[in-house]
């Protein structure tokens, strides 16, 4: 038995907002939700630890469908241990680790290694995303079936970092994953339209700054193609990090046709705009690129009306040597596990565009459902695994990048004031993080 499964004391969270059920108590026993509501306290066994939840909101543990943990291969930027510490601090109880590691997660053995390292760290459940193509080369399908049947039970496949641009390969991947109810998560970016040297959004500003850009249509054309392939194959496609108004429109249309498509937006694309590039600060270099304010508004509207199903971080740690270059030469990506909930709270909840129940859906139950994660899709139901994120909606924090649990410092939120923060994270009844302090498997 791993230490993660060791018995934990029963925990009673007293007087929290339980979303649909109003204010009540939440009793966690033997790793499960034993009782909820006003009478839960009456059922608390002797020795139960009490935790005050006054003016807090209880969410089901957050699930991140898009994380880069860099292990194996770039343990100088992040490890499964440090990335999952950052995840726990950010309120996550499960993360999906993208396949663009070295070596690539394109075999059952590679997937199981990621799973095992996640269990050893013990902060969150780490689920490997399987590569679509061998070595992310975009030529031959990876061992999709073997990964699906492995101990890791892989259901999400992605060449993220690269687009599966060959339509025939994408079609075959969609057909294949259908047999085990898997999903292909597409990094939608036509390489022919994006080019190899572009580093930002193509527009009036990129021209003025003298930076080579690529246009929104490089994303939108692949989104349009892939929803048609999903219709043709009757399979499920997920669009990673949607960044333009045009992509939102295509997804909205496809859903109206009954096509089985889901989409994600990152916290940074909900807030940051391409104007920030006038500083030439490489912290703002990310793929897909930051877009103009009209796109940001369309993404917020799409998330609020359910066209965009989920928020995913695309946490992409990089060492200083890869980031601190001239803008054109710097690596793409920014970190985001610890700030995601606070960003969504600040721009969507505080602004009245989403409720906390919507946050529970877009950051926990919907991503769990897309990944067919049986353990985390049930919300706060009695009998469900005791994965809980307690949020203080009033807390205002100024982000200090130096405090991050991530090994990397490419944090675009440093110095930002955000309202609403994670207070406590509970994984199967065990506290994994409290106010940014974290506890792993041996705690
Ligand atoms: N988002 C990024 O800018 N970078 C990601 C790759 C990706 O998500 O496409 C990375 O792995 O660094
Ligand atoms: Zn990507
Ligand atoms: Zn990514």
TrEMBL record:
Residues binding Zn(2+) 2, per UniProt: 160, 187, 241
Active site residues per record: 314
Recorded metabolic or biological pathway in which this protein acts: Pyrimidine metabolism; UMP biosynthesis via de novo pathway; (S)-dihydroorotate from bicarbonate: step 3/3
Enzyme category, top tier: hydrolase
Binding sites annotated in the UniProt record for Zn(2+) 1: 66, 68, 160, 314
Coiled-coil intervals: none
Enzymatic reactions: (S)-dihydroorotate + H2O = N-carbamoyl-L-aspartate + H(+)
PANTHER family in the record: ALLANTOINASE
Identification of the protein by name: Dihydroorotase
């Amino acid at each position: 038995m791993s230490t993660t499964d060791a018995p934990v004391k029963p925990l009673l969270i007293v007087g929290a907002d339980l979303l649909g059920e109003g204010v009540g108590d939440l009793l966690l026993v033997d790793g499960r939700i034993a009782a909820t509501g006003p009478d839960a306290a009456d059922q608390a066994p002797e020795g139960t630890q009490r935790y005050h939840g006054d003016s807090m909101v209880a969410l089901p543990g957050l699930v991140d469908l898009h994380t880069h943990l860099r292990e194996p291969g770039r343990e100088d930027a992040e490890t499964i241990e440090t990335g999952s510490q950052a995840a726990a601090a950010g309120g996550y109880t499960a993360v999906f680790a993208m396949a663009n590691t070295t070596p690539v997660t394109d075999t059952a053995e590679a997937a199981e290694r990621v799973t095992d390292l996640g269990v050893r760290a013990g902060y969150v459940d780490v689920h490997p995303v399987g590569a679509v193509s061998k070595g992310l080369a975009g030529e031959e399908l990876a061992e999709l079936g073997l990964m699906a049947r492995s101990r890791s039970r892989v259901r999400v496949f992605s060449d993220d970092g690269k687009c599966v641009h060959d339509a025939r390969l994408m079609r075959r991947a969609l057909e294949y994953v259908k047999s085990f109810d898997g999903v292909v998560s597409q990094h939608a970016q036509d390489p022919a339209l994006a080019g190899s040297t572009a580093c930002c959004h193509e527009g009036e500003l990129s021209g003025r700054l003298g930076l080579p850009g690529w246009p929104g249509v490089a994303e939108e054309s692949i989104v349009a193609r892939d929803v048609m392939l999903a219709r043709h194959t009757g399979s499920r496609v997920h669009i990673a990090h949607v960044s333009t108004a045009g992509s939102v429109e295509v997804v909205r249309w496809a859903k109206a046709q009954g096509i089985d498509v889901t989409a994600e937006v990152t916290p940074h694309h909900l807030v940051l705009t391409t104007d920030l590039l006038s500083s030439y600060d490489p912290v703002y270099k990310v793929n897909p690129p930051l877009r103009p304010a009209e796109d940001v508004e369309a993404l917020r509207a799409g998330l609020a009306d359910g066209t965009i199903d989920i928020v995913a971080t695309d946490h992409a740690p990089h060492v200083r040597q890869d980031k601190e270059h001239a803008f054109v030469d710097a690596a793409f990506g920014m970190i985001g596990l610890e700030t995601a909930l606070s960003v969504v709270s600040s721009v969507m909840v505080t602004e009245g565009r989403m409720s906390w129940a919507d946050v529970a859906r877009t950051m926990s139950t919907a991503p769990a459902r897309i990944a067919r994660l049986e353990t985390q899709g049930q919300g706060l139901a009695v009998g469900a695994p005791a994965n809980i994120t307690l949020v203080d909606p009033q807390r205002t924090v100024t982000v200090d990048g130096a405090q991050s649990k991530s090994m990397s410092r490419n944090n675009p939120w440093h110095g930002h004031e955000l309202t609403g923060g994670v207070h406590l994270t509970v994984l199967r009844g065990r506290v994994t993080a409290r106010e940014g302090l974290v506890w792993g498997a041996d705690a």
